[in-house]
Amino acid sequence: MSVLKSLALSAIAASSALAYAPQLGFNTPPVVETRTLDQIHEAALKEGGTVTVWHGGDEKTQQDSLKTAFEARFPGMTLNITVDLSKYHDINLDRQLATKNVYVDSIILQTLHDYPRWKDEGALLNYKPVGFENIYEPFKDEDGAYMGFFVFAWSNIYAPKSANGSAPKEYTDYLKPEFKDKLVLTYPNDDDAVLYQFDLIMKQYGYSWFESLLAQNPRWVRGTATPVSLIGASNGTYTATFTSSVGTSAPPGFNISYPVDGTFTSWPQTGAILTDAPHPESAKLLHNWILSPEHQAASGTWTVRKDLPSPEGLPGILDMPGTDATKFAKWMGDRAAVERLRFFFEDKIGSAQGKSPLTDDL
Ligand SMILES: *[C@@H]1O[C@H](CO)[C@@H](O)[C@H](O)[C@H]1NC(C)=O
Ligand SMILES: *[C@@H]1O[C@H](CO)[C@@H](O)[C@H](O)[C@H]1NC(C)=O
Ligand SMILES: *[C@@H]1O[C@H](CO)[C@@H](O)[C@H](O)[C@H]1NC(C)=O
Ligand SMILES: *[C@@H]1O[C@H](CO)[C@@H](O)[C@H](O)[C@H]1NC(C)=O
């Protein structure tokens, strides 16, 4: 049984109000896709050619390459994609569901704890795209209500020129004198995937690690893309971060590494189609294409499919040392623990300051 599925079951068991929901007919048998991309494309065009997607992230332009690639691959289609923090997309989707005014077709979010709940509410389409059977078991719902699309992971990211030859690998390396005043980190109390990273580190190295980190005077920022932008723009003022992702290969001017003794955050960014999606065929086109070998290979990160090659030089995500991509969903499901931890950090470093990362120009 998948982690997400067992979460779903424990959520049902915990709520007598939902215990009989599946018998009310919400859990319809999944549709298994057998069409080619071209055939689905034809059906999507007949719907009007637009698919509205809400994607988790922290820069407005973060999914521009997805939009460009999709529209180039499928002439006549428009990918109407909006990037916002997953923690805001999910509550806004809840409002659409509550008012029975669903206008989003597809969601691709980091808030993995929402999916079992939405499934229980009958909000998600049980649908298995082509290749579904090859998605790693822990990354998918057995009825196809939701599934991982890409693996996101934080790595050590540093500007080797500015870091003066000092390459961080383990989280204890950031406590070295050469990283004093040089670190840019995302507020853990502003992003649960960053909060999880701090939780993993402190479970291993204790509170004293965090005290020593504070003594390094890191710059706290909003958004997980901001540290890399700041390091790139600062010409040596800032040199490293461990709360961001640049995919599995470093852009010019940066190097990346992964801890081996320490544990880094990774998770399947998870997608679903709404039961009441106004353009279900267009959403299916997007999902089939995202999971296709052609797109998985071009994603710049680990694939969610066990039958496809991992990024060059790296093992598959479930064999990667220093991480367990199946654990984030379970951790996110314990909202009481997440809230306690968030307030722990708010107390230590204050509430997240600054503009929304979507509009902060970094
Ligand atoms: C595009 O998405 C936005 C935000 O979700 C939505 O308000 C708008 O109606 C969509 N446009 C079309 C043409 O579907
Ligand atoms: C940065 O990466 C390059 C290319 O992989 C490697 O040759 C170099 O040693 C790395 N530098 C540091 C400081 O890690
Ligand atoms: C870089 O490292 C060298 C040798 O460790 C040291 O002498 C030098 O002061 C360092 N430069 C900076 C800017 O930290
Ligand atoms: C960046 O910093 C280096 C060393 O401090 C300096 O030589 C160089 O001129 C700076 N570049 C820019 C664009 O400011």
From TrEMBL:
The keyword Ribonucleoprotein does not apply. Residues 1-19 form the signal peptide. SUPFAM superfamilies: Periplasmic binding protein-like II (SSF53850). Keywords: Signal. The keyword Signal applies. It comes from the Eukaryota. PANTHER family: ABC TRANSPORTER SUBSTRATE-BINDING PROTEIN, THIAMINE-BINDING PERIPLASMIC PROTEIN-RELATED. This is Periplasmic binding protein-like II.
